[in-house]
Amino acid sequence: MRKTILLVDDDELVRITLKEFFTLLGLTVIEASNGREGIEKAINNEIHILIADYRMPDLTGVEMIKEIWKFKRDFKIIILTGFANEITNEVIREFGVVAVLQKPVDLGVLEKLITQLLSNPKNKRG
């Protein structure tokens, strides 16, 4: 079974680049361009990893995650941001965020992280 990533970022270039990258890794990618669309797609699809931008025009990544958690919690979370200092340790612990990666993201680091998360079922949220 192919693993699915939900990629939520308001920057189209980031989405295009990461979708292409994840597809080359053999993953299925569902895209959303804002937090509200991300909520809808997370609720209506089985996802294994949520990769969310922190700052988006309608909701922050954290606000979006809070809404998704009302419906499901069985996925891993990675936050991408240019503003890592705005994400508190409390938020990381509360939602079990596995990584906060600074933009522009190092694709080698991201690949290692994704591979590790998908190969270790004990990392599964739930």
TrEMBL record:
Q: Which UniProt keywords apply?
A: Phosphoprotein
Give residue ranges for domain Response regulatory: 4-118
- Tell me the SUPFAM superfamilies matching this sequence: CheY-like
BP term (GO), one = phosphorelay signal transduction system
Q: Which residues carry this modification: 4-aspartylphosphate?
A: D53
Q: What InterPro entries is this protein classified in?
A: Bact_response_regulator (IPR050595), CheY-like_superfamily (IPR011006), Sig_transdc_resp-reg_receiver (IPR001789)
Question: Which residue spans traverse the membrane?
Answer: none
Record protein name field: Two-component system, response regulator, stage 0 sporulation protein F
